[in-house]
Write a structure and sequence with these properties.
The structure is a homodimer of 559-residue chains.
Chain A: H1 5-25, H2 43-54, E1 66-71, E2 84-88, H3 90-99, H4 101-125, H5 127-138, H6 142-149, H7 151-168, E3 176-182, E4 185-198, E5 201-205, H8 216-224, E6 229-232, H9 239-254, E7 262-264, H10 273-278, E8 283-289, H11 292-301, E9 306-310, E10 316-319, E11 321-322, H12 325-337, E12 349-353, E13 358-359, H13 366-380, H14 384-391, H15 397-406, E14 411-414, E15 418-419, E16 429-430, E17 433-438, H16 442-448, E18 456-462, H17 465-479, E19 484-487, H18 491-504, E20 508-510, H19 543-547, E21 550-558
Parallel strand pairs in A: 5-6, 5-8, 6-7, 8-9, 10-12, 10-19, 11-13, 12-18, 17-18, 19-20
Antiparallel strand pairs in A: 1-2, 3-4, 4-21, 14-17, 15-16
Helix pairs in contact in A: 1-4, 1-7, 2-5, 4-7, 4-9, 5-6, 6-7, 7-8, 12-13, 17-18
Chain lengths: 559, 559
């Protein structure tokens, strides 16, 4: 064994301890630097070179059951990646993935956590390479791909490892001598052992926009709890997860485990293997991020598995009043613009009283608020270089179509603008559209109560803030929400909104006017989603996210 | 507020601390005495009088929406109970149950746990009364009804409260100041609060055989995590849970909470309200113990709820070899006899090698083992008084029918015997039947691979222990198992059986020859079921059983 437990422990035990402490205190913590410069002078060039070297090649993984090659990623920035990935015969690959389960279980929670930490550390060391892979599959701008696809994703992975470790060690790992007094007679005595045992193969169904950030929590939660993990990336975003699988296989092998505990399932165009894999009896856990339709399908049909889904939702910001009007506008403008609104956490509906709002800059009518917000977005994105760095590219033609259609839904307060990316002339870069809708009109409601994923937001006029709060409740209950935002200086309104979020289970950001945005969460401190409304049945990350990925098997022996 | 938090804390905080410690160490612990005498000199007479006073009366609860009265329990020992319970209009009761949710959430995890502990303590003080209620609904013999329906059920309830408390306090309850350094710029700062918020109304669908033992974990897990609980007892076993609801309502009111946080839903004969209630949108959690058919129905249809089910299974004991033949036989004889085998944990299939087994009393052929086991059961139940005290009564006519049919499935090694209960001449009391079946015959397999709930066990001949181990694997995987037992002196066989239990997720008892039986588990130390095979999707009790009954709602405020 090249990577001994002692060596892994020296490298990562203190990081795990800090992670365990962080999820308990929820204070700021991260072992993964956000600044590209923190990775060394040659890292940017090395990362780019490593990414370029992957292009136009076969991505070998040495997996059993490889029966062909599949690929076809085209960067949202234009270039074809030209990478082919192994296509698997599940009848061969799945049994091979199970072969190493026994040894992985026997390793125990601590060693599994250390191995996972090593995988994350090696991914971390290659963050520049991953950044290019994420950028050219998701369309995120480089800096966002670097941060969200790199350190933030690694944070979420490590957070899941910490939760898994904590959960599995709630029951003692050594033998327990149990003795029950029987009055004058001898006590009843048993020797008991408790083993955390994985459920079976875990299937990760990756998404297009955040392949690593949305993929790592499930991947590492399952692996750390003793399950092999089959990674089925989105066909447009294979590379970041293929790199992840390669690193995981290397580390597993070096640590003396079967590399097939982590494997990739790439697919031919239109093959739709997620549906076939999801109902295989070997698959006992599924993590999925994507459309509500397929999420619902998984929950209905993959009954042999624990299914964790993040689906569509409609995120709302209630704008009641503020004591920092400029701060509010600039904060919202950034939230709407970041990655062209292609985040599951981007606000969609801005609920504003028809009668206007009160602010530190005097009362503002509904029209003024919308106009000022449009101006704030225009100002933020006025410079094309800055706009490109914030917006990234549209991830796929569906987003472009929705953006075009949105302008027909109502009065356009801010039209979308085409921007040219000088480095990537084929990139489709668009600024957000803001459309005014009347919250009391049923046809408007049909529009704003559906998720319109992409750079589209609706300035919805409501009769009053109280009316808006009820609309907020209905939106969360019926459509789900990953995030809720609100601006108010009124304690009563604040309490009413908080009450709705507590009752309908949504995460609330209040009066954000600085450098934290409603669409961003920090691992170890913030929960991503609540797991209690239709947008997602799990939160990243909590006890519930890991507790059912393994079972504790007890053996009682006559003492 | 008559019951202040201070007073509740004085009474129960140390008990909760001990419970939290016990679930961590898994050592023997219980605050609930098992001996009837521990409850005071007058307790037996008082308990009986209290039970008798309930008979032939209306069981008033003062619930909103009571639109009639329902009842009709007949003791398995013969007498009609003649008690009428409130029948509820869910359109009135369910909204009323939600009214107190906000205050119950605001109380916080600690106060909720203390209130739950007070409810359990008051139930504990009335254990003699509950014992008669359990006896005359389940058919358990008095001592078993006393222990399993009293202290052991209270243990399981308190265990769930402890898990709920631990789970909800993993995230800080006070405000957290989060500060993220930004190099030379000011740090990003937020103030964050985290609130454990229940999901909504929890529905407990009670069972006939262990109304309190199987009911308390879900009831207290849900209540302690902030959810109102609607208790829908089995129509034949209403009283123990109606008493529980009454105590809970009293304590809630005294502690200043809405008593409607716990309510009863009794039903008219054949009304089947579980189906109607289970799919109501207000119902967000369901706990169910009973048939696989209805458990599957709930999992398929009550998609708006978290559904925790304990269904049918086929429990197996592999008999390979033993160094205490007499101990093994007497231990098994007791396991098969206790409560006429009407436990979800009673062994059904005894797998014995066709070629016989090795023992400390020399080699024993398959026939000898079966004959000796039959003799051990006959010996144990030879005295009618002792038999009555062990067997109790058959809970319902279905069990009687299955017992009669079982004799036709194969060669009867031990016929069932009718026993008269001198105190209750109408009680249907039967000793267990043991039927020999050939494990290699498909028609025999059809019989022994179905759950035959009641005093029926099958001595299944297998080609070898290895063959038996594979049959064990198939049984757990396809039919589920709440318990697995094994007798072996071979380390290899032990390892093979352990491996199957780890891979298929089943709880294993090895070489039990003393006063602990495979069908008994101790709260705070043993897990009841694994939650990882078809017999149950949850274990009593672990983190997974409580973690998804609430969600943590975070509010982030600009600092």
């Amino acid at each position: 064994m090249q990577l001994s437990e002692t060596r892994l422990s020296e490298r990562h035990r203190s990081t795990l301890d800090q992670a365990l402490e962080a999820i308990r205190t929820r204070a700021h913590w991260s072992p993964h630097p956000e600044h590209p410069k923190a990775y060394g002078e040659s890292a940017p060039a090395d990362g780019l070179a490593a990414f370029e070297a992957l292009r136009g090649s076969r991505f070998e993984l040495g997996q059993p059951g490889t029966d062909g090659w599949a690929g076809g990623e085209i960067s949202p920035y234009g270039p074809e990646l030209g990478i082919e990935y192994p296509h698997a015969d599940p009848d061969v690959l799945l049994p091979a993935m199970r072969a190493g389960t026994g040894a992985w279980r026997e390793a125990g929670p601590e060693l599994r956590a250390l191995v996972c930490a090593e995988i994350l550390a090696r991914i971390g060391a290659r963050t520049h390479e991953f950044a290019h892979a994420v950028m050219h599959t998701s369309g995120q701008a480089f800096m966002m791909a670097f941060q969200a696809g790199g350190p933030h994703a690694q944070d979420r992975g490590l957070e899941a490892v910490a939760y898994a470790l904590a959960e599995q060690t709630r029951t003692p790992s050594g033998a327990v001598d149990w003795s029950k007094p029987q009055g004058k007679r001898d006590p009843l005595e048993l020797r008991k052992t408790f083993t955390a045992a994985g459920r079976g193969i875990s299937l990760l169904i990756g998404c297009n926009t955040f392949p690593t950030w949305n993929g790592y929590p499930g991947l590492f939660a399952s692996l750390a709890t003793g399950n092999p993990v089959l990674v089925k990336p989105h066909p447009r975003a294979v590379l970041p997860l293929a790199l992840t699988v390669r690193v995981a296989r290397e580390v597993l092998a070096e640590a003396g485990f079967d590399p097939n505990l982590v494997a990739l399932a790439a697919e031919h165009p239109g093959e739709g293997i997620a549906k076939t894999l999801a109902v295989r009896p070997e698959i006992r856990i599924i993590d999925y991020t994507g459309s509500t339709a397929f999420g619902d399908w998984l929950e209905t049909h993959a009954r042999q598995a624990q299914v964790y889904t993040e689906k569509a939702g409609v995120n709302t910001v209630v704008i009641d009043s503020t004591d920092d009007y400029r701060g509010m506008l600039s904060n919202l403008a950034f939230s709407l613009s970041l990655y062209s609104g292609q985040m599951c956490t981007t606000p969609q509906n801005l609920l504003i009283s028809r009668g206007g709002i009160t602010t530190d800059a005097g009362p503002k009518s509904y029209d003024e608020v919308v106009t000022d917000l449009a101006a704030a977005v225009s100002g933020l994105l006025g410079d094309d270089a800055r706009a490109n760095a914030l917006l990234g590219a549209l991830v796929n033609p569906d987003v472009k179509r929705r953006l075009a259609d949105a302008a027909g839904l109502g009065e356009v307060a801010l039209p979308s603008r085409e921007i040219t990316n000088p480095d990537f002339p084929d990139a489709v870069v668009r600024t957000p559209v803001i459309v005014k809708l009347d919250g009391s009109k049923p046809d408007a409601e049909a529009a704003f109560l559906s998720e319109c994923f992409g750079p589209v937001s609706f300035a919805v006029s409501v009769d009053s803030t109280a009316d808006g709060v009820e609309l907020l409740r209905r939106t969360i209950r019926d459509r789900g929400a990953m995030t809720v935002g609100a601006y108010t200086t009124s304690p009563e309104v604040e309490r009413a909104i908080e009450e709705v979020c507590l009752e309908e289970s949504a995460q609330l950001s209040l009066n954000l006017t600085g450098g934290v945005y409603v669409n961003q969460t920090a691992a170890f401190s913030d929960f991503h989603g609540s797991g209690g409304n239709p947008a997602a049945n799990a939160a990243l990350c909590d006890g519930a996210f890991v507790a059912h990925r393994f079972r504790v098997v007890e053996v009682r022996r006559q003492a």
